[in-house]
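From the shared-data thread, chain only:
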Amino acid sequence: MKSDIEIAQEAELYPITKVAESIGLSDEDLECYGKYKAKISDSCIKRVQNNPDGKLILVTAINPTPAGEGKTTISVGLAQAMAKIGKKAVLALREPSLGPCFGVKGGAAGGGYAQVVPMEEINLHFTGDFHAITSANNLLEALLDNHIQQGNVLRIDTRQIVWKRCLDMNDRALRNIVVGLGSKSDGFVREDHFVITVASEIMAILCLAESMADLKARLGRIIVAYDLDGKPVTAADLKAVGPMAALLKDALKPNLVQTLEHTPVLIHGGPFANIAHGCNSVMATRTAMKLGDFVITEAGFGADLGAEKFLDIKCRIAGIAPDAVVLVATIRALKYNAGVPVADLKQENVEALRKGSVNLKKHISNLKKYGVKVAVTINRFAEDTEAEIAALSEICEQEGVVFAVSEVFAKGGAGATDLAELVVKLTEEEKHFAPIYADDLSLEDKIRRIATEIYGAKDVEFASAATKELKRLTDLGFDKVPVCIAKTQYSLSDDPKLLGAPEGFTFHIREVYVSAGAGFVVALAGSILSMPGLPKEPAAYRIDVDDDGRITGLS
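Structure, as tokens:
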């Protein structure tokens, strides 16, 4: 079979104006970036707010494995399948980060015949949103250091600077650095840090902002440091809001592209789910709900990360709720959760599938706690046998959820029409959605609730520094906000080696900080890092461009 990039490059794309017409938009509603991508104008976003809301469908997955699950591929294929059965569907996704594109994971535009295009542009610079976010983040850092250099009127304690620089590339050497070396004019010498752009608070703010006014208000609330009296110093105190907003003016607008079958896609924002809140922008999701009868959106990594944050953070802040949830699994991933080596995953093994299904069952149970309707689908691979599929179907029936096989990688939308029909029926049922914890729980209890109810932990252990910071944040009035737990994506626990559905473990919180502008508190668990590193053989080695400007090796 052809590679993803070959399929994408051979596809016949519609002009983006024609894609826009299918959801009732005119040329005046678009700000075009070439022939095949555009931003939706502010005036259009405001105008469509009077439209009724379409049904919202969340796509999530079991914990990822080295074998891959294909959650984005299923999301794209489901949107295409909705169109196949005559539904007006819009897809809402996150933008890919350059970190995984050149690192381990590769791109994030789907795969096979269920892709978002133009694939290379989406996976690389796209419309410049991530560059704008990086620039706004680092402008704030520059203004902070300059304020200290120019006299430090705000009496910033240089030992209590919490704002970090960012870069959208995996670069472990930048995790912990020293700045200000040189002469007196080069600034104060201090320890500094980088995070990857998709883990930055500016990214979270852009994805949760409802308007330019809301964006500016959130930017102003960012805590960059504490003064000598222990009081927060904000971006507003540094007079940074206006220039940051200017850099983010265009990045705030959702991007419109298309699938291989010309289904409209709003792709906007890209926080990781393991170290950030893992959802595309509120503005893109809400706008999609005003433009389509069915909106398919995706939350990053497994349901313990992306879906939990979608349901507990994004839905709470945006005032939305899913009408159905699609939980993606693969036969080989379930066997991997039973301890089958990667080299043996292609061999039929019904017994291992049943054993490894504990991971799937745990995610089903977790999602039901939110009062949402769940459908399970497998991203089918050629080696999946009928006996294995029948066993999984039986397991889903026992768990009280509907099940469908998806073959979108090979067949596009035609490979998920059964799933689309099931999902449509689920959205017609009455929903009783509620987050897993209440606003008035303490921060510590919110973290404990997620760890015990969703992850399966017996208890939570807080490092002394985390406990101290939780008290400070409570005293500062941040105890009513949601929590965003950063942990490994490979396990329900904080230990990536614990597969399946571990129980009785202690969950470890080593660090806590507030993203005051985003409106949540972040808790770092285990050894999770906010600036990833490159592997021994990074994907960058395979990427090239020929003399005609044609990119190869991108996946």
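Residues 350 and 388 are 5 Å apart (CA to CA).
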